[in-house]
């Protein structure tokens, strides 16, 4: 029997944390009885409903997308702007992006309906590395790169890069390779702004074992069996949390 929040996440309703909120709000029932206890477990023969609609576990799908600039990492935009999810055609499952790239950034996105795994890939506790190629104005000094590794202070506190390497000059700009073990909103842009270097272009090229490879901008592909196995291996390190 699975804990209820895990069952709901496997059904594609979002992360475990989001599913806990659904349970607390009294929106989930098992065999016709509303449940609000986060420790509740559910078996395969039981009938689970959310807001009165039957829930069935979906087959997990995993898609790698090379997001162009100008696309949003959201499943709903009232303004009708282009979304990364629109780049994956003919999906019957409801997928969502694992983490986000801001509208001006590009590169690797993972789209899935596996909320449990998505949470692990993004949670700081697991320290899953995200790799970026960053074009910055000017020429950061060795001291600047050292400060990125040592960390700078943002509104959320002390943040730092796990790895920084200068790649090449391009006119009056410089390309860097930056690896983060945890990501906050626009973290790289804000860290470099602290050092007075504006980000001109930012492209994510890796998440954990996934690499964007030669996938063209705006294109997508399903993960290979080897890639899916590598992602699941990350999830094996989780110790199940007790509800608060």
Verbal overview:
The protein has helices spanning 4-10, 16-24, 115-122, 142-150, 187-194, 225-235; strands at 2-3, 28-30, 33-34, 41-42, 48-50, 53-54, 62-67, 96-97, 106-112, 130-137, 152-154, 157-159, 163-170, 173-180, 199-207, 210-211, 220-222. 32% of the residues are buried. The chain has six helices and 17 strands. With 244 residues, the protein is α+β, with helices and mostly antiparallel strands. Helix 3 packs across helix 6. 21% of the residues lie in helices and 30% in strands. The strands form four sheets. Strands 7, 8, 9, 10, 13, 14, 15, 16 and 17 form a nine-stranded mixed beta sheet that branches. The chain has a four-stranded antiparallel beta sheet with strand order 3-2-5-6, with no helix packed on it.
Q: Which labels suit this protein?
A:
single chain, 244 residues, alpha+beta, nine-stranded mixed sheet, four-stranded antiparallel sheet, 21% helix
Proportion of strand residues: 25-35%
The helix content is: 10-25%
Biggest sheet details:
9 strands, mixed
Radius of gyration: 20 Å
The termini sit apart by 20 Å
Q: How many strand elements? A: 17
Order of helices and strands: EHHEEEEEEEEHEHEEEEHEEEH
Q: What class would the helix/strand composition place it in?
A: alpha+beta
Shape: elongated
Number of helices: 6
Mean pLDDT: 89
Can you tell me the residue ranges where pLDDT is under 50 for at least 5 consecutive residues? 238-244
